[in-house]
């Protein structure tokens, strides 16, 4: 009988509180040990007797269904051997009496996931009761390809569980509070389930490029029964309206419980959930909003907008080409798979728009490739490039003798890809990151980047974009039949300009009052035929209702301006507002034709409604595990009733999400709802509330509270 057969392990202490602080994983709501790769963690063994020099002791870490040493999925670590086991290391730190403390360091490129642990002493095998260890990517580890050197950025992009997603329009950007909640109960397990569901080989789980691409596919339900089902129809009775979600937690918890897609999401929901999944796995991530985002450009970098004579966008022609905003994600990593110089932020997108390699997935695409015009680089850089750089071409469609006559009204080459936004590091404000995606509009670098991109994008037979050459429009104009006529554009000489403004905020129930300003900037006298229309549309550019239009002829002389009012009464739009479940924007389009010249001008503006606020009453500080009351108060200051009101509230680390049915709220009426809160974690915590109704889709508020011991 060998002398170490009597050596048995009686207990393994995972030293969770000590390890998790060192590994920045102490916030995860789980009883298991969670550590980051490439960084040492300690284990304490209790033995049946003290350890002797001749004893055989080894720790076996395994991952996946068929763990094997050659594939790096089984690591047999012997503290007394110097053999390299897939880059993992083990050492005895301290051995006194029956206690033995070991230090284990996983490889900085180890596969991410759940590892099982067994301890072998001679012929004896000990399997701890909770024998699984969760291993994550490590932005703190210099050897990890997701290493991020700045501590403030790590706090924001990995550890912050709340934030904002920017929505609205380029003229009127709103911050939507969003709870990412990557540390909440069962979120880590949901992410591990997604990793298993991705069917990635274990060797691929080492690589954040492959993992982030797989997650961009799994967060949408297309192809693979993923997390969120997209719906842009305006009808959401069989699920939760995309407007109503307060964060990712309820979505991922429901998905993990039912293993079925959650209804419904739109772009900010996909992005919010993807930020949660990435931060949870340890990949630095941020939600990014692109205003005036180009879609469906067929990679010819052109979006065609068709207007009728009143200046109304035609619903039946490529109506979905420019979204007011679109939200995707950036993730931080080195790109060892590309030539040097493309490390850092990479764009990924979980909103199902176009298939990439047969699946609805997008990215990772280096921001530097988009900026420099290197759009041949993987993945999906052509698609991302077009979203932020396409030209917008306006056409007027007029029927003459049974044919459609297309007149080109002009090209906007600078409006697409504006105010690209994300939450600032360590501050509750918007940061403009357009410069990370593109050079300043009109600069020499921008033109060089554009030329470079076009050289890769140009399929044979398609001509380059209008800013390089005069385009024979017949080649690339879609929706045009042979008998239709196409007229080319003219360069303006008169110096006439258009502006669209609203003096008063837009409030549901009040008239919509907009001013179209016709300005002359040079000497001379001009007669201008003006047509301007007002439409209700969703953020994807889908027109829901034509509200009204004006046609007027105005005269401008010298350097002067004329103001033309456009007024829409509440009766004309309130009904339309209540029939769709989407948040609507008021879209104003103006066309000016200068008499006696071939000149034509167009201008568009997308305006958002403004709503009365929700008030939050609660103390500024609280103590852990001590109850306090939080009250939400809302007064309907609009002069219309709000029907079917629901209030959703959530406080991460304070209380679980709750929904209050408030019924109909008449003008002037005040509602008050209260939640009893029990903080479970210290630090600055946020409470978020969101009110939805038939008329008003999204009123949000957040309030911070400091929780101490």
TrEMBL record:
<dbReference type="InterPro" id="IPR001102">
    <property type="entry name" value="Transglutaminase_N"/>
</dbReference>
<dbReference type="InterPro" id="IPR013808">
    <property type="entry name" value="Transglutaminase_AS"/>
</dbReference>
<feature type="domain" description="Transglutaminase-like">
    <location>
        <begin position="259"/>
        <end position="352"/>
    </location>
</feature>
<dbReference type="Pfam" id="PF00868">
    <property type="entry name" value="Transglut_N"/>
</dbReference>
<dbReference type="InterPro" id="IPR050779">
    <property type="entry name" value="Transglutaminase"/>
</dbReference>
<feature type="binding site">
    <location>
        <position position="446"/>
    </location>
    <ligand>
        <name>Ca(2+)</name>
    </ligand>
</feature>
<keyword id="KW-0479">Metal-binding</keyword>
<dbReference type="InterPro" id="IPR023608">
    <property type="entry name" value="Transglutaminase_animal"/>
</dbReference>
<keyword id="KW-0106">Calcium</keyword>
<feature type="active site">
    <location>
        <position position="267"/>
    </location>
</feature>
<keyword id="KW-0012">Acyltransferase</keyword>
<dbReference type="Pfam" id="PF00927">
    <property type="entry name" value="Transglut_C"/>
</dbReference>
<dbReference type="InterPro" id="IPR036985">
    <property type="entry name" value="Transglutaminase-like_sf"/>
</dbReference>
<dbReference type="InterPro" id="IPR036238">
    <property type="entry name" value="Transglutaminase_C_sf"/>
</dbReference>
<feature type="binding site">
    <location>
        <position position="441"/>
    </location>
    <ligand>
        <name>Ca(2+)</name>
    </ligand>
</feature>
<dbReference type="Pfam" id="PF01841">
    <property type="entry name" value="Transglut_core"/>
</dbReference>
<dbReference type="GO" id="GO:0046872">
    <property type="term" value="F:metal ion binding"/>
</dbReference>
<dbReference type="GO" id="GO:0003810">
    <property type="term" value="F:protein-glutamine gamma-glutamyltransferase activity"/>
</dbReference>
<feature type="binding site">
    <location>
        <position position="389"/>
    </location>
    <ligand>
        <name>Ca(2+)</name>
    </ligand>
</feature>
<feature type="active site">
    <location>
        <position position="349"/>
    </location>
</feature>
<dbReference type="InterPro" id="IPR014756">
    <property type="entry name" value="Ig_E-set"/>
</dbReference>
<comment type="subunit">
    <text>Homodimer.</text>
</comment>
<protein>
    <recommendedName>
        <fullName>Protein-glutamine gamma-glutamyltransferase 4</fullName>
        <ecNumber>2.3.2.13</ecNumber>
    </recommendedName>
</protein>
<dbReference type="InterPro" id="IPR008958">
    <property type="entry name" value="Transglutaminase_C"/>
</dbReference>
<dbReference type="InterPro" id="IPR038765">
    <property type="entry name" value="Papain-like_cys_pep_sf"/>
</dbReference>
<keyword id="KW-0808">Transferase</keyword>
<feature type="active site">
    <location>
        <position position="326"/>
    </location>
</feature>
<dbReference type="InterPro" id="IPR002931">
    <property type="entry name" value="Transglutaminase-like"/>
</dbReference>
<comment type="similarity">
    <text>Belongs to the transglutaminase superfamily. Transglutaminase family.</text>
</comment>
<dbReference type="InterPro" id="IPR013783">
    <property type="entry name" value="Ig-like_fold"/>
</dbReference>
<feature type="binding site">
    <location>
        <position position="391"/>
    </location>
    <ligand>
        <name>Ca(2+)</name>
    </ligand>
</feature>
